């Protein structure tokens, strides 16, 4: 594919103090025409970078009730300057496979075995999810194998993959896949590969048989795996660990309660975590949360908030990333965090991409969807003013799902050569009945620069308000039957 550049002029929409948008490069497009899904649509990207190579994977041709016609990938071997793309073989009927659909792409690299990996979940025509798959590339992310079966079950969801790339770790070369078994109350499952994703061990539960969804495992330099994850009701963030290469997993314990403002305009969104790790093994987790904007027993909009840990068991007080004033009308959601793996501690470089509505209290016909970016060079103590990357987009331009219009349950940002490379869905007006929603990234990597806006810790009162709102949301979730997720319960 020849990448196309979208000019800043086509996207700029001034909101508050946001900096004007940079030029964007389109890195993929939906090539399919099957009548059962929506074209041309691409949603829900993940990314991973190792050295000068960046790989992104995403759904292509979104179905209304779950999954896409295939998983697409786009690969850069020059730190985001140029991209090539394609579509995974052997999964769906669109590319030589037997499944009708596929969803939830996640990317990892195994340095020991020089292998790129994309995890996904195949979906039957009856919208069942019987397995987790892993596709492998041994030529730098340019071509991919038919999938390997990673795990099997009856209704699996929200898979994520990571590998231990520290040569001095006792578990160097181990790769770990997290997923949840929706057919068993969102039971959290972990499985391990020691041979570059060719084979996978038996799936294992946490020590307390915990439930949850949207986990994003990261690996510390000493080999400890830390898995931040949302509770099944998405009313708390939890975490669990393994120190023995995935032989066993600790109990999942609560990091904090989560309180959220329902994103308006029927946009599919929920407080799933985005997790990253620095060179020293400090773990950073962000999610959308409204505890800093509560009043009168309710919230007015979401901020992006963060908690950190050096061991996966003790976590810092939740802090607010200061994108704008708490008195603003802006609603922030669907974050994708990156941490420069060459930095750590008080000089760690962080980059955060996210979606937002400039006016939180909007409707499906009036909501304007944008993409923003902020960065920090001191481990998240202070942040830059926001840069607008894309928008405004109308919700009617987006693929529709049974949980609302969709850009993704997650997006992703990765560092390569010291600059950040977020990948996200951008939509322009459809051409008749044909959508125009595709994957984009800034044409040049985004710098992480020093900012002056200080992150602020939550007060006791704000945490109490969060716990109260989380309890109300949990009771409502139970009353509704305790179905998974607040807005992402179809794959």
From TrEMBL:
Gene Ontology molecular function terms on file: hydrolase activity, acting on glycosyl bonds
SUPFAM superfamilies, sorted: Sialidases
Protein keywords: Glycosidase, Hydrolase, Signal
Sialidase domain: residues covered: 132-328
Signal peptide as annotated in the record: 1-20
Gene3D superfamilies per record: 2.120.10.10
Domain of life: Bacteria
EC number(s) on file: 3.2.1.-
InterPro entries named among the record's database cross-references: Sialidase, Sialidase_sf
Enzyme class: hydrolase
CDD domains: Sialidase_non-viral
Protein name (database record): Sialidase family protein
Lineage: Bacteria, Bacillati, Actinomycetota, Actinomycetes, Kitasatosporales
């Amino acid at each position: 594919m020849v990448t196309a550049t979208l000019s800043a002029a086509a996207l700029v929409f001034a909101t508050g103090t946001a900096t004007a948008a940079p030029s964007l490069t389109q890195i993929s497009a939906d090539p399919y025409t099957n009548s059962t899904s929506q074209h041309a649509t691409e949603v829900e990207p993940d990314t991973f970078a190792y050295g000068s190579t960046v790989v992104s994977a995403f759904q292509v041709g979104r179905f209304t009730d779950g999954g896409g016609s295939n998983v697409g990938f786009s690969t850069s071997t020059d730190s985001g300057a140029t991209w090539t793309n394609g579509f995974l073989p052997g999964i769906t009927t669109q590319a030589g496979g037997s499944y009708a659909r596929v969803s939830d792409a996640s990317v990892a690299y195994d340095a020991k075995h020089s292998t790129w990996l994309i995890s996904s979940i195949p979906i039957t025509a009856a919208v069942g999810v019987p397995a987790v798959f892993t596709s492998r590339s041994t030529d730098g992310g340019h071509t991919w194998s038919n999938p390997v079966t990673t795990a099997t079950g009856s209704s699996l969801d929200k898979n994520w993959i990571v590998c231990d790339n520290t040569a001095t770790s006792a578990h160097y070369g181990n790769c770990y896949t997290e997923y949840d078994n929706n057919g068993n109350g969102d039971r959290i499952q972990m499985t391990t590969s020691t041979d570059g994703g060719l084979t996978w061990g038996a799936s294992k539960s946490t020590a307390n048989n915990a439930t949850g969804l949207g986990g994003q495992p990261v690996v510390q330099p000493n080999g400890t795996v830390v898995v931040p994850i949302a509770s099944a009701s998405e009313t708390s963030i939890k975490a669990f660990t393994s120190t023995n290469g995935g032989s066993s997993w600790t109990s999942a314990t609560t990091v904090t309660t989560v309180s959220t403002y329902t994103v308006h305009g029927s946009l599919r969104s929920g407080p799933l975590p985005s997790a990253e790790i620095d060179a020293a093994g400090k773990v950073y987790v962000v999610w959308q949360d409204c505890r800093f904007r509560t009043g009168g027993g309710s919230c007015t909009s979401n901020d992006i908030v963060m908690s950190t840990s050096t061991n996966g068991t003790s976590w810092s007080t939740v802090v607010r990333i200061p994108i704008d004033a708490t008195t603003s009308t802006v609603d922030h959601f669907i974050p994708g965090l990156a941490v420069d793996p060459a930095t750590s501690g008080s000089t760690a470089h962080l980059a955060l991409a996210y979606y937002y509505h400039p006016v939180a209290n909007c409707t499906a016909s009036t909501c304007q969807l944008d993409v923003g970016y902020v960065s920090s060079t001191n481990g998240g103590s202070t942040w830059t003013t926001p840069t607008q990357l894309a928008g405004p987009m109308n919700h009617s331009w987006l693929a529709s799902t049974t949980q609302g219009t969709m850009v993704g349950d997650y997006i992703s940002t990765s560092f390569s050569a010291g600059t950040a490379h977020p990948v996200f869905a951008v939509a322009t007006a459809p051409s008749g009945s044909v959508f125009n929603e595709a994957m984009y990234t800034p044409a040049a990597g985004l710098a992480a620069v020093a900012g002056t806006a200080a992150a602020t810790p939550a007060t006791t009162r704000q945490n109490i308000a969060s716990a109260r709102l989380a309890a109300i949301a949990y009771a409502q979730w139970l009353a509704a039957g305790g179905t998974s997720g607040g807005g992402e319960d179809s794959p």
